[in-house]
Design goal:
85% helix, flat
Length: 319
């Protein structure tokens, strides 16, 4: 329990540092907050100290991350964070992870006074944060795909109204919600900075990583080369994507029982083991003290993981 408390403290510390960095990077929000200081009265000095502290924290992270920018791993992490929608550079994220790992290790040592646990915690925190980023990428891609049908309808209607394709993208960036509005706004910004539309769309396609959007980009690029009614093409693609989303949701509903069974079969033995460890400790210690018990425990864990993977493969139906 103490180890769990220490780990949670380290994670919360990392999240505080992360949100601090995100807060400082949003310059527009900071400008608004600075303007609000006029209405804060006697608390204005306290507010100024808070924002100045956040600026100093971010400057420290930025200076510490500067030497890491030339490494390929930091550059690849930049792309991963852009996919996840986290407005941090890869080098800055590495510094934040190191800070979280160090704080977590110190917390573990102070609570347990066990040096052997420190390397485990120092490895678990970066692994957990990497899993968090990966989950963010998947959720953002899914949200983008679910918005894509409405986005194509908006673009097609704008084209029929006489807008150019670039103007239609500006409409999407203004009228729709993130993440699709953010991505189209980035495309418009790239084009304004001199990047060709084809290159900007290809970069967006790589960031999103959606097979549905890849179909859209291919259609747009072909239309720009050979001509044709782009609005009608986008309407057809929109209908296809919406039908595919509907089928995915239906399949997700039909396979809910299988996914629930997978998690139940995966977690139930651990709950039973914990219950037996509390009420029948002598019997459970046989799995640790005896060689046959250790072999049985390892075999059971391997089979649990194998069964979970098999069930996930069965219920994961591609559309």
């Amino acid at each position: 329990m103490l180890v769990l408390v220490a780990l949670l403290c380290a994670v919360f510390t990392f999240l505080f540092v992360l949100f601090t960095a995100l807060f400082v990077r949003q310059k527009q929000s900071l400008d608004i907050l600075h303007r609000l200081r006029r209405h804060l009265g006697e608390d204005s000095e306290r507010f100024k100290k808070t924002t100045d502290f956040l600026h100093r924290v971010y400057k420290f992270i930025k200076r510490a991350a500067k030497p890491l920018e030339r490494f390929n791993f930091a550059k690849s992490l930049d792309f991963k964070l852009r996919q996840a929608g986290i407005p941090l550079f890869g080098s800055e994220f590495i510094i934040l992870v190191l800070i979280a790992a160090a704080l977590g290790s110190v917390a573990i040592y102070v609570i347990t006074l066990n040096v052997a646990i420190i390397p485990i915690v120092a490895a678990m925190i970066p692994a957990g944060l990497w899993i968090y980023v990966t989950i963010r990428v998947g959720r953002r891609r899914q949200a983008f795909t679910e918005q894509l049908g409405d986005c194509l309808t908006t673009v097609a209607n704008a084209l029929r109204a006489g807008y150019s394709f670039q103007q239609a993208m500006d409409v999407v960036s203004r009228e729709m919600e993130p993440p699709i509005s953010t991505e189209f706004e980035r495309v418009s910004t790239d084009i304004a900075m001199g990047v060709t539309m084809e290159a900007a769309l290809e970069q967006m396609n790589k960031r999103v990583g959606s097979s549905d959007f890849d179909l859209v980009v291919t259609a747009v690029l072909i239309q720009r080369e050979v001509g044709g009614n782009l609005a009608q093409v986008l309407d057809t693609i929109s209908d296809t994507i919406n039908e595919r989303i509907r089928m995915k949701r239906e399949i997700h509903t039909l396979t809910a029982q299988g996914r629930f069974s997978a998690w139940t079969l995966m977690l139930l033995p651990f709950f039973v083991a914990g219950f037996c460890l509390v009420f029948n400790r002598e019997q459970m210690e046989l799995f640790i003290s005896e060689e046959a018990g250790r072999f049985a425990l390892a075999f059971a864990i391997i089979m649990e993981i194998f069964g979970f993977i098999v069930i996930q493969k069965i219920v994961d139906i591609e559309v």
